[in-house]
Each structure stands twice: as C-alpha cells, then as structure tokens.
Amino acid sequence: MNKKQRQTLERIFEKPERSDVSWSDIESLFIALGAEISEGKGSRVRVVLLDVKAVFHRPHPQKVTNKSTIRSVRRFLMESGII
After folding, report:
1. Are 29 and 22 spatial neighbours (Cβ–Cβ below 8 Å)?
2. Rounded Cα gap, residues 42 and 19, in angstroms
3. Is the peptide bond before 16 cis (omega within 30 degrees of 0)?
4. pTM, rounded to two decimals
5. Which domains does the chain have, with CATH numbers?
6. How far is CA 59 from CA 16, 41, 42, 70, in A?
7. Cα(83)–Cα(50) distance, rounded to whole angstroms?
8. CB 67 within 8 A of CB 17
9. In this structure, which long-range contacts are made by residues 60-69, counting pairs with CB atoms below 8 Å and at least 24 apart in sequence?
10. How confident is the model at residue 82 (pLDDT cuts 50, 70, 90)?
C-alpha cells in the first residue's frame, strides 16, 4: 500500500465522515488490499475482499463519494478484518 492509499484509508475512518474522498482513490485502496472488483449493472461496482462481498454505487456525475457511501466502505473494511 502506498502513501496515498494509506491516506485514503485514514480519511475513510475519520469522524465525522468526509464527503470529499474520490471514488477512484477508494477503488485504488481496494485493489491494493487485494480485492476483486467487477462492474455491475449501471453504476454498481461489486467488491470481494477476504470472502466478504459488497456492492457500491459509483458516484456520478461527480467524482467524490457522499458520507453514506463512506460509512458503507468503512463498514465493509471492518467486516473484512482490515481494521
């Protein structure tokens, strides 16, 4: 995991939730952690990390995630045993 990915991980776990985390940074973090990412229907993105599965919606037209998505990503990482 590089410095930017570590910073993304820290930003995901900040309280209160941030609303300025780029979705591409989150996908990069998932890949660095060894997740399998596949495209779903529409803006859906399927992620499998350590046998834990999740589906997220890629934000559009903006490129940053909202607070509820950050909470979902945080929960997913915790369920995966990353933190």
Report:
1. no
2. 22
3. yes
4. 0.92
5. 3-79 (3.30.920)
6. 20, 14, 11, 12
7. 13
8. yes
9. 63/22, 63/23, 63/24, 64/19, 64/20, 64/21, 64/22, 64/23, 65/19, 65/21, 65/22, 65/23, 65/26, 66/19, 67/16, 67/17, 67/18, 67/19
10. confident
> Which residues are 36's β-sheet partners?
48
Residues in the chain: 83
Place of tokens 């995966």: 80
Q: Name residue, tokens 């037209």.
A: 61
The stretch 40-63 carries a mean pLDDT of: 93
Strand ranges inside the chain, DSSP E = 36-39, 44-49, 52-57
